Amino acid sequence: MHPFTYTKARDTREALDAGRQGGRYIAGGTTLVDLMRETVERPGSLVDISALPLRKVTATKSGGLRIGALAHMAETAAHPKVRTLYPVISQALELSASAQLRNMATIGGNIMQRTRCTYFRDVTAACNKREPGSGCAALHGFNRSHAILGTSDHCVATHPSDLAVALAALEATVHLLGPDGERTVPFADFLLQPGSTPNSEQALHKAELITTVELPAHPRPLKSGYLKVRDRQSYEFALTSAAVVLHIRGGVIRAAKVAVGGVGTVPWKLPAVERQLIGERPSKALWAEAAEQAADGARPLQHNRFKVELLKRTVERQLSTVGGTK
Fold it and tell me: Which of 46, 80, 194, 246 is at 20 to 30 A from 253, Cα to Cα?
């Protein structure tokens, strides 16, 4: 680990001032500390923001929820309003990590975490995300766990967050605070596809902080859930995952939101699947027909072609779990 300075911000002004000077924000540290230990990240200055008042979960006037960026994963998953209104969030959080990590890691840190690509974490390997212009060793290396959607010739790494998949499905909004004031970014625009600049991962301006993540109101009754498929049931990252949100009234699907993880360079929304569902009555045949479109546009690599079929089956299974079958 390389030498660095450490500052603990007492309020947002101190945090932003330190951020303007090039300091890196840290709260739970469950990702950044590991990357520093492995010398993947080498910040010269850390700004501890864990004391900032950004931990509350509050209801919005419209009927949604706002989750503070520094709320811990465990307390967010257990919050009564989250469990009641958006079980897909609770399930995604509880499947994300071990209990010890969930007690430390924050909501903001979870969606900001960097890829688990082995080449990114191996400082001797070529990685455009870690060192722009060096190449992508995963393209022709062992790429079983890598992305099949949203990839480019510069990067094929998956985004590791389970929570981010649920936020994508719910069409959340990220609230930011920076030197130039407050702004909001739709979650769909917050995490960036790699394109030719995979080192640019989030739509953040210099020194900006995530303050809250807002879950919009959705029509009720609302059914939702998260399914994670992995090599082992204990703490592991997804091979595929699916977040499904359905509004069913009078036996007809009135609204549908579906996003998947483990297969995309960012959490991947499935609008074609959603359109297939709206106006239809839940059935096994409908789930299977809609899920056939889940892998549209996929570009599998040598070792992850199995993800195409696995993704379809994952989506079909979760549609059936959330929507029921006849």
Answer: 80
Q: Fill in the DSSP letter of residue 79.
A: -
CA 141 remoteness from chain centre? 25
Average pLDDT, the chain: 96
pLDDT at residue number 153: 97
pLDDT at position 326, please?
Answer: 56
Domain range list for the chain = 1-47, 223-323
C-alpha to C-alpha distance for 25 and 151, rounded to whole angstroms: 28
Contacts of 250 (CB under 8 A, 6+ apart): none
> Closest Cα to residue 261, out of 223, 311, 306, 296?
311
Does the domain at 223-323 match CATH 3.30.390.50? Answer given as yes
Q: What letter would DSSP give residue 185?
A: E
Closest CA to 314 of 238, 227, 225: 227
Tokens representing 91 are 């399930």
First to last CA, the chain: 57
DSSP letter for 205, please: P
- The first and second tokens of residue 310, run together, are 């696995």
